[in-house]
Amino acid sequence: MIHAYQLVVLIPYAAALILVAVPGYRVGATANVIVSAATFAAGLWLVAGESIVGDYAIVDEFNIVFIAINTLVGFTTALFSASYIGHEIETGRLSPSFVRFYHAMFQAMMGSMNLALIANNIGVMWVGLELATLITVVMVGLYRTPQAIEAAWKYFILASVGISLAFFGTILIYLAGQPALGEGMPAMTWSLLQAAAARMDPAILDLAFIFLLIGYGTKVGLAPLHAWLPDAHAEGPTPISAVLSGLLLNVALYALLRFKMLVAGQPAALDPGPVMVVMGLVSLIFAAFMLYQRRDIKRLFAYSSIEHMGLIVFAFGMGGPLANFAGLLHMAMHSLTKSGIFFAVGHIAQAKGTQRIAEIRGLSVTHPRLAVVFALAVLAICGMPPFGVFASEFLILTTTFAREPWLALLPAFGLLVGFGALLMRLQGTIFGEPVGPAHRVEASSVPMVLHLLLVLAAGIFLPPLLVAWFQRAAELLG
Amino acid sequence: MSQAYEISHLLAGVMLVTSFALLYQERVAAVLNAFAAQSITLALAVAWSAWSDNRPDLFITALIALTLKGIVIPVALHRTVARLGIHREVEKVVGVGVALMVGLALTGLAQALVLKVAAGMASHAREELALALAIILLGFLMMIVRRNAVTQVVGFMSMENGLILAATGARGMPLVVEVSVAFSVLISLFVFAVFVFRIRERFDTVDLEALDRMRGDRR
Amino acid sequence: MTRDLVVQFLAQGAQMAFVLLIAPLAVGVVRRVKARLMRRQGPPLLQAYRDLAKLLRKESVIAESASWLFRSAPYLIFALTWVAAALVPSFASGLMFNWAADVVALVALLGAARALLALAGMDVGTSFGGIGSSREMMIATLAEPAMMLIVLTLAIAAGTTRLAGVADFFIAEPFGVRVSLALSLISLVIVALAENARIPVDNPATHLELTMVHEAMVLEYSGRHLALIEAASHLKLVLYLSLLICLFAPFGMAPATAGLSGWAIGLVAWIAKLLAGAVLLGVWEVSIAKMRVFRLPDFVGVAFVFGFIAILLAFLTRGVFA
Amino acid sequence: MRGPALAFVYPLSALAAVVLGVVDLQVLLSGGEAATRLPIGLPTIGFHLRLDTLSAFFGIVINGGVVAASLYGMGFDRVKELTPRVEPLFPLFAAAMNLVLIADDAYAFLFSWELMSLASWALVVARHTDPECRRAAHLYLVMAAIGTVALLFAFGGLAGPAGGYTFDTVRTHPPQPMVAALVLMAALVGCGSKGGLIPLHAWLPLAHPAAPSHVSALMSGVMTKVAIYGFVRIAFDLLGPPAWWWALPPIVLGAMTAVLGLLYAVLDRDLKRVLAYSTIENVGLIFVALGLALAFRANAQHAAAAVAMAAALLHVLNHSWFKSLLFLGAGAILHATGRRDLDGLGGLIHRMPRTAAFFLVGALAISALPPLNGFVSEWLLFQAVIAAPALPQAALHFASPAIGAMLALAAALAAACFVRVYGTAFLGRPRSAEAAGAHDVPLVQQAAMGGLAFLCILGGLMGSVLAAALAPVLDKLAGGALPGPGSGPTPFSLIAFDPARSIYDAPIIALFVAIASLTTLIVVHRLSERRTRRGPAWDCGFPDPSPATQYTASSFAQPLRRVYGAAAFAAQETVVMPPPGDIRPARFSVVVVDHLWRAFYAAPGRAVIGLSERLNVLQFLTIRRYLVLMFVTLVILLSIAAVTT
Fold first, then answer.
1. Could you give the C-alpha distances from C117 to A357, A408, C3, C22, C213, in angstroms and in order?
2. Of A227, A434, B55, D183, which has the most beta carbons under 10 Å away?
3. What's the whole-model pTM score?
């Protein structure tokens, strides 16, 4: 009997094979949506079911949330790109054959990310994550403009180096686990490693965590390993930007956190907290300043993703039940909000025919509804109530101040600087006298509204089940 | 056993030496030869551990290392270099002397790190881990002290050699073969890219204007 | 009981009448003294009364651009000043209503009169009115902080801000916090000069437009309105004189419980002190020249500094109240 | 979202505000309180709401303002006044303010607090095509965010690492002294940035005027009070027993704010900006009173604490009334003439008599002149200052005269400022065609202003009654109360400490003044020549028909600028006099420097932009250099691991 956790991986991979063969982009798009819906259904099935610990697969309180988000955002993104890609073909940026390829790649990517999420084996997780990365590399280069190729190439190099380092880290984890769990599979299995964490070799564990931090941190987009991120977001198709910010960063961070759990399980090992705090703060503040000089709207929000990843890593670096809880909550909220923002940005780019911020003005006059949604989404990511990000930032800042009053000033400073920049851009784009063209928007606005509603709901009421999961994961994270 | 360990240790040592050779070489052709030598040594090392710990599947890894990285890619790159006309001296960021010094420092760092590892793990495994770590770091160094694409690809590949060495060194580690296959695919992509997109200086251009054009993000 | 109440009420009324009646006389005295010291014949002592009567008889000319505010202001200004003057203990301390406003409220009442006058000055829309109003308000910003410091000193010393209370306190123990009191006396005198637009702050006799402050504001007034304004300024002079008297020379003032005889004595003493004060003012005014407007901060600043020193001294030798 | 769909916004919000106000009043008078917990908000903590007497009092303040603003809004021409950008947000803004007051846990508080900022931001930027509005809105929301972060810190400190966010938990576990001090500073920054305490004030004169006038009235008259509420709630309710030196920052900052705010106001030519600056001044006064209350409470001088607290709370109420009135009046002027610059107005008392009358009441009230309401709180404040020397701490001794002098200066400046405003806007002759052609506003808007004016007078006469109504709040916050109405000579005499010490009896004084003026009127009209002739202005014999010869707002400010400007703003006047025989006109120019803006706004802004330009280089590195970054990071971490054991 086939189980849901197999479905979330198998459906996309199978679909990828089929979609390569499907001619006609409309059919492909529809199929893409249907398949993603099916995957989402499987994901929900997992949520409904109880946790699983198999040889290769694990579904526990920690990753179930991310599986759910992954499949959901995969579905909404498919929905969005179905209406979006058509416009890309009309404008001639993509040929139908490329769209076919795009759909196949999209499913393959989703499959790989789900694989990385449910894998109970650090090797398999590594494979899934790297597969997803390489596929996104190809997607980023999809438009084959010089900029796109340049971005893809940079992404490729940095990601490959990251891949190698992460792999070395994985080997080290194996070596660290070997004394406790013996040779072979057990020393690469999450559940067993987690259980045996206390008996693992601390020194190798430290070494391993460093390599994993650099390796997976590159995909998380931590400064100074972030260089690929802004360009990849800016040059790739908008749905891919949404998936990158919304999912891939999360999955990479998820992997990193799994390893942090191991380190937390071994008291003799060095505490990764300070390192994470520092890297988080560097990313947060650096990205906040970078926001001011951005001219391309997608690159702007790419940097804001770096900013928020920095905040999340900072929270986990602080540790403790409240901060970890806040970090997890912020991960979830950020991926929903940011992908929603990228959907909105896609609409804007269609409406104004450009991504250059300077040429986007007065949206509230020309496209009132879009402007409202966009404004709400941006304010949400800035941590304004009544959206979920406010709750997580509330927890992060209050607990930090309660424990380290002076340290708390730094993330606050970064967030304020970033807020100033985003607000400036927001006002510039939606207010003022409109300039330039104002086309009708083809893409469907359902996904972004849906995301916004979810974030709103989370800001007002968090389901107890979710809270329970987060709390359990938070205490594992130490 | 001890003699088995002697040989694998020797081979690993040779690989480290070739890494230094890579850093030392001035001309692209020579770099490629040095790399080929390293890959062949790797193949030998892997084959040896395959035989000594009788894990026949590792022979595949050895074979890939030998054919792809020992022969195919070096040859291919030789021809690319010839076609791109960059077989003359490569532009270096720092002098050979400095590069070697840094390399030595990195090797020392690798040793220091591994020496902290508890005696819980077999001493030869630790030794090999130290060497592999050193090779990886040297490969990374190679990537950042050379300016043209080919040598950087080479640097990456020697990094990856170190990885394979570490993976085979980790006794009984599953999936090594699969991973080595995956890596060779990755590398082929690299080389493919260098071929197709004619990436000469994209790797490291000093022409910021060009980058602006590329990035479409005016300063 | 009721009879007593009636008496009290009459006494209060009597004080209102007294201040109103004596005010022009005080002004007359000042003018006369100044004239004499300048070797002039000078106006008769009762000239001020005659002026008022004359103004009342004349019709009043009002500029077209004037509004209802211009016409109603004089009545309010006069009333406010009158009430304020009536609330300062003059011949007796415990009169029926002089608890109704303490020093702070008293200053504020005068402030209200001043604000109305300044508004009236702006109403017609001439440049002179503006000059007068703006300078008047500027002077007030200089005087009020000093006044506040004086009030603070007195409150520290006497433990109350009710004038009657302060007077009673000083009657009871005349040798209070002396140095600080002397200093605050000086600053109160300076404040009084500034508030009453006397030399050196302003020259009540001037008609050289650019130097005048008070006169410039009332330039547009005539007839009965002018009469009221003039009367109000006379009252203000009396008010400040009796304020000085009640705070720094309360001797002779009848206590709350005193009967008619006590009141009579108090009344005599008060009038005497009042006229003496007027004489002194006259002497002062001839012996000093008017200052340029923007030298005023230095002059009133003296009041501020003295007031501050007074408080610091009061901190050293004070009866704390809580 | 336009047309009839929104026609009911203002009536409904007025109605809702009335209902809420009545509820608040009932709670305040009955002294009871109601609390509830909604299962939303933070997980495991929930969303706590509580309506106690303090919230109820501030609720009355806020809903009063909302009623007036809504009435005023009803009078709008719904086509011209960009309603779709205002009407949906107006009720949200009002609701958020009410929510802040009844929030009973940190999350609920900040949630509604930030919602309030957000709604008001959207209202400020309603006139979005005006770049000045956008700039103001941006500065405003950024400052609001800074304030929110400060409050986050404050509540973080109160809640502690365990996260006891509900106010009840905080009350039972007050923080350590050191933490408490940090919390107080954070609260001062957080609430000060919303209330306009210097140096966090600069957004206020930009944002308040930018909004539609009835929203300006809400922001200036009411929202600043929410900031005060936040500070009172934290400092007097949550923070536990105070240390005496906590009083110093609010007192010193407050006094400086009061004086500087008015100096700004006196020098400014824009009517609505002047009003906004005077709001800053009043917030300063309130903070002084609160600081004094803290000091008295720390020394267990409860009677004095009650006086100071009563001064603060009554001033909150009074200011909400006359500032709303004045902003509505400014809105009326703006509506009638389309101008905000004082030097373009004049003579409006003839064109819009009712508005002029109401505005006069407001102007006199805000100048703290008896018998209006502004003076009641001012009087109590002075009484509190006069009691300050009784405090044992030397620092507070020597502060007290300085504070008293600064408050007196502020009062005098306020009078000067509003004589200037009223004199140039309503009196004199029209300085522009618009002013000459002005007309009074619709009846409902006049009603809004008239109601507030009436309250200003009533509050002035019935100050003692209001103070008595505050008794439960005072008892809760200051541990004492003012002597009740019974203890004075008349039921309406306002008493600080005890009747022997200081009384202010507004009704008696008002009665006296009324009698005196009436008798004067009658007498004068009996004996005097009753004839009155209208003629050209005398003006020393040289009347000039051109309205340009009048004193303008700028010229009115000149003496004050001469006296205070040099010190406060390095003001410099330069006169360029052409040589004799040259017929060119002489040129007069003034340079005024806003040091605070330079130091606290311009410089940091430049720093951020400059730094971002520096860092931006990192966007344009080559791939190899990015690899170098990666490599260096790796090596650093490895070295750390190598050295640490």
1. 58, 56, 40, 23, 12
2. D183
3. 0.94
